[in-house]
Amino acid sequence: MLSIDASFGLGEALVSGLVNADIYKVRNGKVIDKKISTKKLAVYALKDGGTKEQETLPERQNRQVLTDEQILQLEHMGRKIEEYFGRPQDIEWCLADDTFYIVQSRPITTLYPTPEANDHENHVYVSVGHQQMMTDPMKPLGLSFFLLTTNAPMCKAGGRLFVDVTHMLASPDSRKTVLDALGQSDPLIKDALMTIVERGDFIKSLPNDKKEQSPGKSNKVMSSSGFQTQIENDPTIVSDLIKRSQTSIDELKHNIQTKSGSDLFDLILEDIQQLKKSLSDPQNMGVIMAAINASSWINEKMKEWLGEKNVADTLSQSVPNNITSEMGLALLDVADVIRPYPEVIDYLQHVKDDNFLDELVKFDGGQETQDVIYAYLNKYGMRCVGEIDITKTRWSEKPTTLVPMILSNIKNFEPNAGNRKFEQGRQEALKKEQELLDRLKQLPDGEQKAKETKRMIDLIRNFIGYREYPKYGIVNRYFVYKQALLKEAEQLVQANVIHEKEDIYYLPFEELREVVRTNKLDYQVISKRKDEYKLYEKLTPPRVITSDGEIIAGEYKRENLPAEAICMSTCFFRSYRGTSTCHLKHGRC
Protein backbone atom coordinates (compact mmCIF):
# COMPACT_ATOMS: atom_id res chain seq x y z
CA MET A 1 0.00 0.00 0.00
CA LEU A 2 1.16 3.52 -0.77
CA SER A 3 0.44 6.64 1.32
CA ILE A 4 0.41 10.19 -0.08
CA ASP A 5 0.42 13.38 2.01
CA ALA A 6 -0.61 16.55 0.16
CA SER A 7 -1.36 20.20 1.01
CA PHE A 8 -1.45 23.55 -0.76
CA GLY A 9 1.69 25.67 -0.98
CA LEU A 10 5.18 24.74 0.15
CA GLY A 11 5.94 21.79 2.38
CA GLU A 12 7.33 24.15 5.00
CA ALA A 13 3.78 24.53 6.32
CA LEU A 14 3.80 20.80 7.14
CA VAL A 15 7.22 21.00 8.79
CA SER A 16 6.21 23.92 10.99
CA GLY A 17 2.88 22.31 11.90
CA LEU A 18 0.78 25.09 10.39
CA VAL A 19 -1.36 22.68 8.38
CA ASN A 20 -2.50 19.07 8.36
CA ALA A 21 -2.10 17.31 5.06
CA ASP A 22 -4.67 15.34 3.12
CA ILE A 23 -3.77 11.65 3.33
CA TYR A 24 -4.56 9.31 0.48
CA LYS A 25 -4.07 5.53 0.59
CA VAL A 26 -3.61 3.59 -2.66
CA ARG A 27 -3.54 -0.17 -3.12
CA ASN A 28 -3.28 -2.07 -6.42
CA GLY A 29 -3.92 1.04 -8.48
CA LYS A 30 -7.06 2.03 -6.53
CA VAL A 31 -7.63 4.84 -4.04
CA ILE A 32 -8.92 2.94 -1.00
CA ASP A 33 -9.01 5.74 1.61
CA LYS A 34 -8.95 9.54 1.73
CA LYS A 35 -8.68 11.77 4.78
CA ILE A 36 -9.38 15.36 3.78
CA SER A 37 -8.08 17.94 6.24
CA THR A 38 -9.04 21.57 6.77
CA LYS A 39 -6.29 23.80 5.33
CA LYS A 40 -6.72 27.41 6.53
CA LEU A 41 -3.11 28.49 5.92
CA ALA A 42 -0.45 27.88 3.28
CA VAL A 43 3.15 28.96 2.81
CA TYR A 44 4.17 30.39 -0.55
CA ALA A 45 7.52 31.47 -2.06
CA LEU A 46 8.23 35.16 -2.72
CA LYS A 47 9.70 36.17 -6.06
CA ASP A 48 12.62 37.98 -4.43
CA GLY A 49 13.33 35.15 -2.02
CA GLY A 50 11.89 34.03 1.28
CA THR A 51 8.37 32.84 2.05
CA LYS A 52 5.09 34.17 3.30
CA GLU A 53 2.09 32.74 5.14
CA GLN A 54 -1.23 33.28 3.46
CA GLU A 55 -4.80 32.36 4.36
CA THR A 56 -6.32 29.77 2.08
CA LEU A 57 -9.38 30.88 0.18
CA PRO A 58 -12.54 29.61 1.94
CA GLU A 59 -13.59 27.53 -1.07
CA ARG A 60 -10.24 25.66 -0.98
CA GLN A 61 -9.98 25.04 2.76
CA ASN A 62 -11.88 21.73 2.71
CA ARG A 63 -11.15 20.85 -0.89
CA GLN A 64 -9.26 17.72 -1.86
CA VAL A 65 -5.77 18.87 -2.87
CA LEU A 66 -5.25 16.22 -5.56
CA THR A 67 -7.86 14.72 -7.83
CA ASP A 68 -8.17 10.94 -7.90
CA GLU A 69 -6.56 10.96 -11.32
CA GLN A 70 -3.58 12.94 -9.99
CA ILE A 71 -3.31 10.60 -6.99
CA LEU A 72 -3.02 7.58 -9.28
CA GLN A 73 -0.56 9.43 -11.54
CA LEU A 74 1.64 10.19 -8.55
CA GLU A 75 1.29 6.63 -7.32
CA HIS A 76 2.52 5.33 -10.69
CA MET A 77 5.57 7.60 -10.52
CA GLY A 78 6.30 6.48 -6.97
CA ARG A 79 6.15 2.81 -7.95
CA LYS A 80 8.63 3.36 -10.77
CA ILE A 81 11.02 5.15 -8.40
CA GLU A 82 10.77 2.36 -5.84
CA GLU A 83 11.37 -0.23 -8.55
CA TYR A 84 14.45 1.67 -9.74
CA PHE A 85 16.02 1.81 -6.25
CA GLY A 86 14.81 -1.65 -5.26
CA ARG A 87 13.46 -0.67 -1.84
CA PRO A 88 10.69 1.50 -0.28
CA GLN A 89 11.23 5.23 -0.72
CA ASP A 90 10.29 8.46 1.04
CA ILE A 91 9.64 10.74 -1.94
CA GLU A 92 9.28 14.52 -1.89
CA TRP A 93 7.34 16.02 -4.74
CA CYS A 94 5.58 19.16 -5.90
CA LEU A 95 2.89 19.99 -8.44
CA ALA A 96 3.10 23.11 -10.59
CA ASP A 97 1.12 23.95 -13.74
CA ASP A 98 -0.40 20.44 -13.72
CA THR A 99 3.05 18.85 -13.85
CA PHE A 100 4.56 16.71 -11.09
CA TYR A 101 8.20 17.28 -10.17
CA ILE A 102 10.22 14.89 -8.02
CA VAL A 103 12.33 16.88 -5.56
CA GLN A 104 13.99 14.08 -3.60
CA SER A 105 13.82 10.35 -2.98
CA ARG A 106 15.51 8.57 -0.10
CA PRO A 107 15.24 5.03 1.25
CA ILE A 108 13.11 4.45 4.32
CA THR A 109 15.28 2.61 6.85
CA THR A 110 12.76 2.47 9.71
CA LEU A 111 10.21 0.31 7.94
CA TYR A 112 9.53 -3.15 9.20
CA PRO A 113 10.34 -5.73 6.51
CA THR A 114 7.51 -7.79 5.08
CA PRO A 115 7.53 -11.58 5.62
CA GLU A 116 8.37 -13.35 2.38
CA ALA A 117 5.70 -15.34 0.53
CA ASN A 118 6.14 -17.71 -2.39
CA ASP A 119 3.12 -16.36 -4.24
CA HIS A 120 1.54 -13.04 -5.13
CA GLU A 121 -1.56 -13.54 -3.00
CA ASN A 122 -2.57 -11.37 -0.05
CA HIS A 123 -1.37 -12.64 3.33
CA VAL A 124 -1.93 -11.63 6.95
CA TYR A 125 0.79 -12.31 9.51
CA VAL A 126 0.57 -12.30 13.31
CA SER A 127 3.59 -11.76 15.56
CA VAL A 128 4.70 -14.80 17.55
CA GLY A 129 6.78 -12.64 19.88
CA HIS A 130 3.83 -10.60 21.14
CA GLN A 131 2.05 -13.80 22.15
CA GLN A 132 5.20 -15.07 23.85
CA MET A 133 5.81 -11.66 25.48
CA MET A 134 9.20 -11.57 23.77
CA THR A 135 9.41 -8.95 21.04
CA ASP A 136 13.21 -8.76 20.82
CA PRO A 137 14.75 -10.08 17.59
CA MET A 138 16.04 -13.63 17.55
CA LYS A 139 19.43 -14.61 16.21
CA PRO A 140 19.52 -16.99 13.20
CA LEU A 141 20.24 -20.11 15.28
CA GLY A 142 17.32 -19.30 17.57
CA LEU A 143 14.99 -18.70 14.64
CA SER A 144 15.95 -21.96 12.98
CA PHE A 145 15.47 -24.03 16.15
CA PHE A 146 12.00 -22.63 16.77
CA LEU A 147 11.05 -23.25 13.15
CA LEU A 148 12.32 -26.82 13.44
CA THR A 149 10.21 -27.32 16.57
CA THR A 150 6.89 -25.78 15.61
CA ASN A 151 4.20 -27.23 13.37
CA ALA A 152 2.65 -23.83 12.73
CA PRO A 153 3.14 -22.11 9.31
CA MET A 154 5.68 -19.51 10.39
CA CYS A 155 7.94 -17.16 8.49
CA LYS A 156 10.74 -14.73 9.36
CA ALA A 157 10.91 -10.96 9.08
CA GLY A 158 13.15 -8.49 10.88
CA GLY A 159 14.61 -11.21 13.10
CA ARG A 160 11.15 -12.17 14.39
CA LEU A 161 8.67 -14.93 13.67
CA PHE A 162 5.18 -14.49 12.29
CA VAL A 163 2.29 -16.90 11.73
CA ASP A 164 0.36 -16.73 8.46
CA VAL A 165 -3.31 -16.70 9.53
CA THR A 166 -4.74 -15.87 6.10
CA HIS A 167 -6.55 -19.16 5.51
CA MET A 168 -7.91 -19.25 9.05
CA LEU A 169 -9.36 -15.76 8.63
CA ALA A 170 -10.76 -16.59 5.22
CA SER A 171 -12.69 -19.58 6.53
CA PRO A 172 -15.86 -18.74 8.47
CA ASP A 173 -15.43 -22.08 10.25
CA SER A 174 -12.09 -21.18 11.83
CA ARG A 175 -12.24 -17.37 11.89
CA LYS A 176 -14.05 -17.03 15.23
CA THR A 177 -11.81 -19.64 16.82
CA VAL A 178 -8.58 -17.94 15.81
CA LEU A 179 -9.90 -14.46 16.70
CA ASP A 180 -11.03 -15.59 20.14
CA ALA A 181 -7.81 -17.52 20.81
CA LEU A 182 -5.56 -14.63 19.82
CA GLY A 183 -7.82 -12.15 21.59
CA GLN A 184 -7.30 -13.95 24.90
CA SER A 185 -3.54 -13.42 24.70
CA ASP A 186 -3.62 -9.97 23.10
CA PRO A 187 -6.83 -7.95 22.46
CA LEU A 188 -4.95 -5.61 20.10
CA ILE A 189 -4.14 -8.50 17.77
CA LYS A 190 -7.80 -9.50 17.66
CA ASP A 191 -8.93 -5.95 16.91
CA ALA A 192 -6.33 -5.57 14.16
CA LEU A 193 -7.43 -8.82 12.51
CA MET A 194 -11.10 -7.84 12.76
CA THR A 195 -10.24 -4.57 11.03
CA ILE A 196 -8.76 -6.48 8.10
CA VAL A 197 -11.68 -8.91 7.91
CA GLU A 198 -14.28 -6.13 8.05
CA ARG A 199 -12.67 -4.28 5.18
CA GLY A 200 -13.67 -7.15 2.93
CA ASP A 201 -11.18 -6.16 0.20
CA PHE A 202 -8.02 -7.90 1.37
CA ILE A 203 -9.05 -11.48 2.25
CA LYS A 204 -11.43 -13.48 0.10
CA SER A 205 -13.88 -15.40 2.28
CA LEU A 206 -14.09 -19.14 1.70
CA PRO A 207 -17.51 -20.89 1.68
CA ASN A 208 -18.78 -22.01 5.05
CA ASP A 209 -19.16 -25.75 4.69
CA LYS A 210 -18.97 -26.85 8.33
CA LYS A 211 -21.24 -26.31 11.27
CA GLU A 212 -19.46 -24.58 14.10
CA GLN A 213 -19.21 -26.71 17.24
CA SER A 214 -20.11 -25.27 20.58
CA PRO A 215 -17.19 -25.63 22.99
CA GLY A 216 -17.56 -27.36 26.27
CA LYS A 217 -20.48 -29.66 25.43
CA SER A 218 -18.33 -32.70 26.11
CA ASN A 219 -14.76 -33.68 26.81
CA LYS A 220 -14.21 -34.42 23.14
CA VAL A 221 -11.70 -31.98 21.73
CA MET A 222 -10.03 -31.36 18.41
CA SER A 223 -6.28 -31.88 18.30
CA SER A 224 -4.00 -29.82 16.06
CA SER A 225 -4.09 -32.65 13.53
CA GLY A 226 -7.88 -32.41 13.37
CA PHE A 227 -8.70 -35.73 15.05
CA GLN A 228 -11.07 -35.99 17.96
CA THR A 229 -9.94 -37.57 21.18
CA GLN A 230 -11.86 -38.44 24.32
CA ILE A 231 -10.16 -37.26 27.51
CA GLU A 232 -11.18 -38.74 30.83
CA ASN A 233 -11.34 -36.40 33.78
CA ASP A 234 -8.43 -38.17 35.45
CA PRO A 235 -5.64 -36.13 37.11
CA THR A 236 -3.18 -39.02 36.76
CA ILE A 237 -3.10 -38.34 33.00
CA VAL A 238 -1.16 -35.14 33.66
CA SER A 239 1.19 -36.86 36.10
CA ASP A 240 1.93 -39.53 33.51
CA LEU A 241 2.56 -36.94 30.77
CA ILE A 242 5.01 -35.07 33.01
CA LYS A 243 6.85 -38.29 33.96
CA ARG A 244 7.04 -39.29 30.30
CA SER A 245 8.48 -35.89 29.37
CA GLN A 246 11.06 -35.92 32.16
CA THR A 247 12.17 -39.46 31.30
CA SER A 248 12.66 -38.42 27.69
CA ILE A 249 14.74 -35.38 28.72
CA ASP A 250 16.91 -37.53 31.00
CA GLU A 251 17.53 -39.94 28.12
CA LEU A 252 18.50 -37.02 25.88
CA LYS A 253 20.98 -35.73 28.47
CA HIS A 254 22.55 -39.18 28.69
CA ASN A 255 22.70 -39.89 24.96
CA ILE A 256 24.02 -36.50 23.90
CA GLN A 257 27.14 -36.75 26.07
CA THR A 258 28.86 -39.10 23.62
CA LYS A 259 27.85 -37.27 20.44
CA SER A 260 29.88 -34.76 18.45
CA GLY A 261 30.20 -33.51 14.90
CA SER A 262 27.59 -34.76 12.42
CA ASP A 263 26.39 -37.38 14.90
CA LEU A 264 25.40 -34.61 17.31
CA PHE A 265 23.33 -32.83 14.69
CA ASP A 266 21.67 -36.09 13.68
CA LEU A 267 20.74 -36.76 17.31
CA ILE A 268 19.31 -33.26 17.77
CA LEU A 269 17.17 -33.57 14.64
CA GLU A 270 15.95 -36.98 15.71
CA ASP A 271 15.12 -35.69 19.18
CA ILE A 272 13.24 -32.70 17.76
CA GLN A 273 11.10 -35.08 15.75
CA GLN A 274 10.29 -37.01 18.92
CA LEU A 275 9.52 -33.72 20.66
CA LYS A 276 7.12 -32.65 17.90
CA LYS A 277 5.47 -36.06 18.01
CA SER A 278 4.90 -35.75 21.76
CA LEU A 279 3.59 -32.18 21.45
CA SER A 280 1.00 -33.23 18.86
CA ASP A 281 0.09 -36.40 20.75
CA PRO A 282 -3.74 -36.54 21.03
CA GLN A 283 -3.56 -37.01 24.80
CA ASN A 284 -1.16 -34.09 25.24
CA MET A 285 -3.30 -31.80 23.09
CA GLY A 286 -6.49 -33.24 24.56
CA VAL A 287 -5.58 -32.30 28.13
CA ILE A 288 -4.79 -28.72 27.15
CA MET A 289 -7.84 -28.27 24.94
CA ALA A 290 -10.15 -29.85 27.51
CA ALA A 291 -8.99 -27.30 30.08
CA ILE A 292 -9.28 -24.37 27.68
CA ASN A 293 -12.72 -25.43 26.50
CA ALA A 294 -13.88 -25.95 30.08
CA SER A 295 -12.65 -22.45 31.00
CA SER A 296 -14.52 -20.96 28.05
CA TRP A 297 -17.65 -22.91 28.98
CA ILE A 298 -17.48 -21.77 32.61
CA ASN A 299 -17.03 -18.11 31.67
CA GLU A 300 -19.85 -18.25 29.13
CA LYS A 301 -22.37 -20.14 31.27
CA MET A 302 -21.68 -18.34 34.56
CA LYS A 303 -22.17 -15.02 32.81
CA GLU A 304 -25.40 -16.30 31.23
CA TRP A 305 -26.80 -18.02 34.32
CA LEU A 306 -25.42 -15.93 37.20
CA GLY A 307 -24.14 -12.68 35.67
CA GLU A 308 -20.58 -13.54 36.81
CA LYS A 309 -17.71 -12.55 34.52
CA ASN A 310 -14.36 -14.33 34.04
CA VAL A 311 -14.82 -16.70 36.98
CA ALA A 312 -12.45 -19.22 35.38
CA ASP A 313 -9.56 -16.99 36.49
CA THR A 314 -10.49 -17.48 40.14
CA LEU A 315 -11.19 -21.18 39.72
CA SER A 316 -7.74 -21.64 38.14
CA GLN A 317 -5.84 -20.33 41.16
CA SER A 318 -3.27 -22.65 42.77
CA VAL A 319 -3.97 -25.58 40.49
CA PRO A 320 -1.52 -28.50 40.61
CA ASN A 321 1.22 -29.06 38.02
CA ASN A 322 1.56 -25.41 36.97
CA ILE A 323 5.31 -25.34 36.40
CA THR A 324 5.46 -21.55 36.02
CA SER A 325 3.70 -20.92 39.34
CA GLU A 326 5.83 -23.59 41.02
CA MET A 327 8.95 -21.82 39.75
CA GLY A 328 7.91 -18.55 41.38
CA LEU A 329 6.92 -20.20 44.65
CA ALA A 330 10.20 -22.14 44.72
CA LEU A 331 12.14 -18.87 44.55
CA LEU A 332 10.25 -17.72 47.65
CA ASP A 333 11.49 -20.91 49.33
CA VAL A 334 15.05 -20.01 48.28
CA ALA A 335 14.60 -16.65 50.02
CA ASP A 336 13.43 -18.45 53.17
CA VAL A 337 16.68 -20.43 53.35
CA ILE A 338 18.84 -17.31 52.94
CA ARG A 339 16.82 -14.95 55.16
CA PRO A 340 18.41 -15.97 58.51
CA TYR A 341 21.97 -15.18 57.30
CA PRO A 342 22.76 -11.42 57.27
CA GLU A 343 26.34 -11.94 56.03
CA VAL A 344 25.09 -13.79 52.96
CA ILE A 345 22.43 -11.15 52.29
CA ASP A 346 25.01 -8.37 52.52
CA TYR A 347 27.31 -10.28 50.17
CA LEU A 348 24.52 -10.85 47.64
CA GLN A 349 23.72 -7.14 47.61
CA HIS A 350 27.16 -6.45 46.13
CA VAL A 351 27.79 -9.39 43.78
CA LYS A 352 28.58 -8.66 40.16
CA ASP A 353 30.55 -11.75 39.15
CA ASP A 354 28.71 -14.89 38.03
CA ASN A 355 31.24 -16.93 40.04
CA PHE A 356 29.71 -15.58 43.24
CA LEU A 357 28.35 -19.02 44.15
CA ASP A 358 31.89 -20.31 44.75
CA GLU A 359 32.55 -17.52 47.26
CA LEU A 360 29.39 -18.13 49.28
CA VAL A 361 30.94 -20.90 51.41
CA LYS A 362 33.13 -18.31 53.15
CA PHE A 363 30.12 -16.89 55.00
CA ASP A 364 27.88 -18.19 57.76
CA GLY A 365 25.00 -19.88 55.92
CA GLY A 366 26.93 -19.81 52.67
CA GLN A 367 26.87 -23.56 52.13
CA GLU A 368 23.11 -23.70 52.67
CA THR A 369 22.67 -20.78 50.27
CA GLN A 370 24.86 -22.36 47.63
CA ASP A 371 23.00 -25.67 47.90
CA VAL A 372 19.53 -24.14 47.60
CA ILE A 373 20.50 -21.94 44.62
CA TYR A 374 22.13 -24.86 42.83
CA ALA A 375 19.03 -26.96 43.48
CA TYR A 376 16.86 -24.21 42.02
CA LEU A 377 19.10 -23.85 38.97
CA ASN A 378 19.11 -27.61 38.47
CA LYS A 379 15.33 -27.52 38.01
CA TYR A 380 14.74 -24.07 36.51
CA GLY A 381 18.15 -22.85 35.36
CA MET A 382 17.37 -23.43 31.71
CA ARG A 383 14.82 -20.62 31.81
CA CYS A 384 15.29 -16.92 31.09
CA VAL A 385 13.61 -13.92 29.51
CA GLY A 386 12.89 -14.65 25.84
CA GLU A 387 13.54 -18.35 26.38
CA ILE A 388 12.05 -19.46 23.04
CA ASP A 389 15.34 -18.19 21.54
CA ILE A 390 17.97 -20.87 22.19
CA THR A 391 20.72 -18.22 22.02
CA LYS A 392 19.39 -16.25 25.01
CA THR A 393 21.50 -16.40 28.17
CA ARG A 394 19.99 -18.84 30.68
CA TRP A 395 19.88 -18.42 34.45
CA SER A 396 22.37 -21.27 34.81
CA GLU A 397 24.75 -19.37 32.52
CA LYS A 398 24.28 -16.10 34.39
CA PRO A 399 23.04 -16.85 37.92
CA THR A 400 23.48 -13.22 39.01
CA THR A 401 20.19 -12.66 37.16
CA LEU A 402 18.43 -14.39 40.05
CA VAL A 403 20.05 -12.34 42.82
CA PRO A 404 17.80 -9.22 42.58
CA MET A 405 14.70 -11.46 42.59
CA ILE A 406 15.93 -13.37 45.65
CA LEU A 407 16.75 -10.17 47.53
CA SER A 408 13.36 -8.72 46.60
CA ASN A 409 11.63 -11.81 47.99
CA ILE A 410 13.60 -11.54 51.24
CA LYS A 411 12.63 -7.88 51.59
CA ASN A 412 8.99 -8.02 50.54
CA PHE A 413 7.71 -11.36 51.84
CA GLU A 414 7.46 -13.02 55.22
CA PRO A 415 8.81 -16.54 55.82
CA ASN A 416 6.78 -19.37 54.32
CA ALA A 417 5.08 -16.93 51.93
CA GLY A 418 5.16 -19.48 49.12
CA ASN A 419 3.02 -22.02 50.94
CA ARG A 420 0.66 -19.33 52.21
CA LYS A 421 0.17 -17.81 48.78
CA PHE A 422 -0.55 -21.20 47.24
CA GLU A 423 -3.00 -22.16 49.97
CA GLN A 424 -4.70 -18.77 49.82
CA GLY A 425 -5.28 -19.18 46.09
CA ARG A 426 -6.55 -22.73 46.56
CA GLN A 427 -9.02 -21.64 49.23
CA GLU A 428 -10.29 -18.77 47.07
CA ALA A 429 -10.86 -21.19 44.20
CA LEU A 430 -12.71 -23.66 46.44
CA LYS A 431 -14.81 -20.88 47.94
CA LYS A 432 -15.78 -19.58 44.50
CA GLU A 433 -16.61 -23.12 43.35
CA GLN A 434 -18.94 -23.70 46.30
CA GLU A 435 -20.56 -20.29 45.89
CA LEU A 436 -21.30 -20.94 42.22
CA LEU A 437 -22.71 -24.40 42.84
CA ASP A 438 -24.96 -23.16 45.67
CA ARG A 439 -26.34 -20.35 43.54
CA LEU A 440 -26.87 -22.62 40.54
CA LYS A 441 -28.95 -25.05 42.60
CA GLN A 442 -31.46 -22.25 43.23
CA LEU A 443 -32.13 -21.87 39.47
CA PRO A 444 -34.56 -23.83 37.30
CA ASP A 445 -32.90 -27.17 36.47
CA GLY A 446 -30.37 -26.09 39.09
CA GLU A 447 -29.21 -29.57 40.04
CA GLN A 448 -28.32 -30.38 36.43
CA LYS A 449 -26.62 -27.01 35.93
CA ALA A 450 -24.61 -27.50 39.11
CA LYS A 451 -23.62 -31.04 38.12
CA GLU A 452 -22.43 -29.94 34.68
CA THR A 453 -20.60 -26.95 36.17
CA LYS A 454 -18.87 -29.15 38.75
CA ARG A 455 -17.61 -31.41 35.97
CA MET A 456 -16.16 -28.42 34.10
CA ILE A 457 -14.54 -27.02 37.23
CA ASP A 458 -12.89 -30.39 37.86
CA LEU A 459 -11.55 -30.35 34.29
CA ILE A 460 -10.05 -26.92 34.91
CA ARG A 461 -8.53 -27.86 38.27
CA ASN A 462 -7.10 -31.14 36.98
CA PHE A 463 -5.80 -30.03 33.60
CA ILE A 464 -5.25 -26.25 33.29
CA GLY A 465 -1.92 -26.30 35.13
CA TYR A 466 -0.41 -28.56 32.47
CA ARG A 467 -0.86 -25.88 29.82
CA GLU A 468 2.51 -24.38 30.80
CA TYR A 469 4.39 -27.66 30.84
CA PRO A 470 5.00 -28.36 27.11
CA LYS A 471 6.92 -25.08 26.81
CA TYR A 472 8.96 -26.04 29.88
CA GLY A 473 9.82 -29.30 28.14
CA ILE A 474 10.89 -27.47 24.98
CA VAL A 475 13.10 -25.05 26.92
CA ASN A 476 14.66 -27.97 28.82
CA ARG A 477 15.65 -29.60 25.55
CA TYR A 478 16.88 -26.35 24.04
CA PHE A 479 19.35 -25.94 26.90
CA VAL A 480 20.66 -29.49 26.41
CA TYR A 481 21.11 -28.81 22.70
CA LYS A 482 22.77 -25.47 23.39
CA GLN A 483 25.35 -26.87 25.82
CA ALA A 484 26.35 -29.54 23.30
CA LEU A 485 26.56 -27.05 20.42
CA LEU A 486 28.72 -24.67 22.46
CA LYS A 487 31.23 -27.51 22.89
CA GLU A 488 31.35 -27.75 19.11
CA ALA A 489 31.80 -23.98 19.01
CA GLU A 490 34.88 -24.28 21.24
CA GLN A 491 36.43 -26.59 18.65
CA LEU A 492 35.66 -24.06 15.91
CA VAL A 493 37.33 -21.29 17.93
CA GLN A 494 40.44 -23.43 18.43
CA ALA A 495 40.52 -24.11 14.69
CA ASN A 496 40.25 -20.34 14.00
CA VAL A 497 37.02 -20.88 12.06
CA ILE A 498 35.14 -18.43 14.30
CA HIS A 499 36.37 -15.76 16.73
CA GLU A 500 34.18 -16.56 19.73
CA LYS A 501 31.79 -19.31 20.73
CA GLU A 502 28.73 -17.08 20.44
CA ASP A 503 29.43 -16.58 16.72
CA ILE A 504 27.50 -19.80 16.09
CA TYR A 505 24.34 -17.95 17.11
CA TYR A 506 24.45 -16.18 13.76
CA LEU A 507 24.31 -19.43 11.78
CA PRO A 508 21.04 -21.30 11.19
CA PHE A 509 21.05 -24.97 12.18
CA GLU A 510 21.88 -26.42 8.75
CA GLU A 511 24.61 -23.85 8.07
CA LEU A 512 26.19 -24.56 11.45
CA ARG A 513 26.04 -28.26 10.71
CA GLU A 514 27.96 -27.70 7.47
CA VAL A 515 30.55 -25.49 9.17
CA VAL A 516 31.15 -28.14 11.83
CA ARG A 517 31.48 -30.80 9.11
CA THR A 518 33.92 -28.86 6.92
CA ASN A 519 35.65 -26.59 9.44
CA LYS A 520 35.23 -23.80 6.87
CA LEU A 521 33.35 -20.50 7.03
CA ASP A 522 33.48 -17.13 5.31
CA TYR A 523 33.54 -14.98 8.45
CA GLN A 524 32.01 -12.06 6.56
CA VAL A 525 28.73 -13.98 6.86
CA ILE A 526 28.93 -13.64 10.65
CA SER A 527 29.86 -9.95 10.46
CA LYS A 528 27.01 -9.20 8.08
CA ARG A 529 24.45 -10.95 10.27
CA LYS A 530 25.68 -9.18 13.38
CA ASP A 531 25.07 -5.88 11.59
CA GLU A 532 21.62 -7.06 10.51
CA TYR A 533 20.80 -8.05 14.08
CA LYS A 534 21.79 -4.58 15.34
CA LEU A 535 19.42 -3.11 12.76
CA TYR A 536 16.61 -5.46 13.79
CA GLU A 537 17.08 -4.41 17.42
CA LYS A 538 16.15 -0.86 16.42
CA LEU A 539 12.93 -1.89 14.69
CA THR A 540 9.58 -1.97 16.45
CA PRO A 541 7.89 -5.25 15.51
CA PRO A 542 4.20 -5.07 14.55
CA ARG A 543 1.52 -7.25 16.07
CA VAL A 544 -0.12 -7.68 12.68
CA ILE A 545 1.35 -7.00 9.25
CA THR A 546 0.04 -7.72 5.76
CA SER A 547 1.91 -8.98 2.72
CA ASP A 548 1.88 -5.50 1.22
CA GLY A 549 3.57 -4.15 4.34
CA GLU A 550 0.63 -2.47 6.04
CA ILE A 551 0.82 -2.52 9.83
CA ILE A 552 -2.51 -2.74 11.64
CA ALA A 553 -2.04 -1.61 15.23
CA GLY A 554 -5.44 -2.45 16.70
CA GLU A 555 -7.27 -0.54 19.41
CA TYR A 556 -8.62 -1.35 22.85
CA LYS A 557 -12.39 -1.36 23.12
CA ARG A 558 -13.40 1.35 25.61
CA GLU A 559 -17.07 1.91 24.72
CA ASN A 560 -18.36 0.53 28.03
CA LEU A 561 -15.98 2.38 30.34
CA PRO A 562 -17.61 4.66 32.93
CA ALA A 563 -17.25 8.39 32.36
CA GLU A 564 -14.90 8.84 35.33
CA ALA A 565 -12.53 6.04 34.26
CA ILE A 566 -8.88 6.95 33.70
CA CYS A 567 -7.31 5.32 30.67
CA MET A 568 -3.55 5.07 30.48
CA SER A 569 -2.02 4.37 27.11
CA THR A 570 1.11 5.12 25.18
CA CYS A 571 0.86 6.78 21.80
CA PHE A 572 3.58 6.38 19.22
CA PHE A 573 4.02 9.07 16.60
CA ARG A 574 6.18 9.02 13.52
CA SER A 575 6.74 12.39 11.90
CA TYR A 576 8.25 13.22 8.53
CA ARG A 577 10.10 16.35 7.56
CA GLY A 578 10.19 18.08 4.20
CA THR A 579 7.70 19.33 1.66
CA SER A 580 4.36 17.70 0.97
CA THR A 581 5.48 14.13 0.53
CA CYS A 582 4.56 10.89 -1.10
CA HIS A 583 5.62 8.37 1.54
CA LEU A 584 6.09 5.19 -0.48
CA LYS A 585 6.18 3.21 2.73
CA HIS A 586 3.48 0.65 2.01
CA GLY A 587 1.18 2.24 4.58
CA ARG A 588 3.57 1.52 7.43
CA CYS A 589 3.00 4.79 9.22
Automatic annotation (TrEMBL):
Positions of region (Disordered): 206-226
Q: Does the keyword Glycoprotein apply?
A: no
InterPro entries, per database record: PEP_Utilizing_Enz (IPR051549), PPDK_AMP/ATP-bd (IPR002192)
The record's listing under Gene3D superfamilies reads: ATP-grasp fold, B domain (3.30.470.20)
Compositionally biased tracts (Polar residues):
215-226
Top EC class, one word: transferase
Q: Which SUPFAM superfamilies match?
A: Glutathione synthetase ATP-binding domain-like
The record places domain Pyruvate phosphate dikinase AMP/ATP-binding at 3-120
Alphabetized Pfam families for the sequence? PPDK_N
Q: What is its EC number?
A: 2.7.9.2
Recite the UniProt keywords alphabetically: Pyruvate, Transferase
Q: Which GO terms describe its molecular function?
A: ATP binding; pyruvate, water dikinase activity
Checking NCBIfam families in the record gives: PRK06241.1-2, PRK06241.1-4
Q: Which PANTHER family match?
A: PHOSPHOENOLPYRUVATE SYNTHASE-RELATED, PPDK_N DOMAIN-CONTAINING PROTEIN
This protein's name = Phosphoenolpyruvate synthase
Q: To which species is this protein native?
A: Pelotomaculum schinkii
